[in-house]
Write a structure and sequence with these properties.
alpha/beta, 14% strand, nine-stranded mixed sheet, 427 residues, 11 strands
Length: 427
Amino acid sequence: MAVDNLREIDYAAIMGHPKVRGAIRPIINTIDWRSPLATDICSHMLTMDPSQTPEPGSVRAVLMLKDYNEDEIDFVLTKIEEYAHIDGGQTDSLIHLFEEFYKKSIVRSALERYHVDKNINELCAKLATVTTSGLGNFNIHDLSLMTYDEFLKEQEHTGAHFIPSAFKVCTESMAHGYYTKGNLVQVAAESGVGKTMFLMNEVVHFARLGIKTLWVALGDMNKDDFMIRLASIIKDVPINEVTLSPDKYKDDEVNEILSHIRVMLYAAEEIDIYTLKTYVTNVVYEFPYDVLVVDYDGNLAESSPGKGMYEEGGIIYNTLAGISRFRENPCLAFVGSQTKIMWWGHEIVPKEASAESSKKQHALDMQITIGIKSDEVCRERKIGTINIPKQRRGETKMMKFQLTTTGRFREISTAEYQMIRSKSDLV
């Protein structure tokens, strides 16, 4: 077998590890394999259950039907066996190794498409060196040579670097008056209080400005839920009405806004943070998003068994912070989070209310909490407080709100809050 074919078969055999196979599954079919054997290995692996380790007999039978010789089959089985039993941190190394191979394959395909057929291997190797270990990794800047205006101009080349909020309280809390790409923002609240609706309000606002969002939903949300809730916010129509007649409200305005949003749906604990990182850093090549939403952190699968929730929280948030600063596509990253049960029913929710908070706090640039008192009036009328207890670049702020039946947050004064709360009839 040629050296290039041997390398491809080696990479295809990596799929024998269930976790690696799950992480790289979305990009497998986009690879232009040169080795027919590597292609057949991948095709077989993709038919397997996500948690299944390949059975040597099954793999051998499939490849024998394709008329491969015994030496080739034995080589494949040895490699699959070698990779299938790797665990711990080495698994992440395998995923990273495959990501590098994937990038090189894209470069190779592009060079061949444009008939750059001279020394392709050398070109790929040099380009990979530049993108993975070149001067860019030093990330060194002489600040004395740059004015703030020049900095702003530089950011224009990365798209919407500064992203305006739909909420006055957020705008006023931020030093620049905008969210910034490369930042990680947590939105924390008890279940059912409105963290997802808050995020949806922001995403609709971003989309109206042409800013693209990738939303990773972990839990019980489906495509219909997204379409109905977003349409309700966009058209300012009660969610119940949109639910009864969704097609009536899915007009050109709604479709134009939805065209700037992509949704990835996973069941609770279906993927861990490392798999999520692989998915979202590869999606950017097809959908260059400005904003990433992960809703919510508690539904990610455990990535490091035995470390406990405290350590796991730190791993999740440090990884999300890294994604937001991903060199090829920095983004503004939001993460939804549930507060500790002891803070449920509190209106002003402090920063320590976030579960595993101290580990998460170090990675956060901004924290937004949403609270509604546990009494019947506040719950029925959906009035409460948006609090910003942590702001790395700016100041802490609060805002009274009422969550309307259309899913919009309406800012209210303290006087209006007291008036709504004092009415005897629930509306």
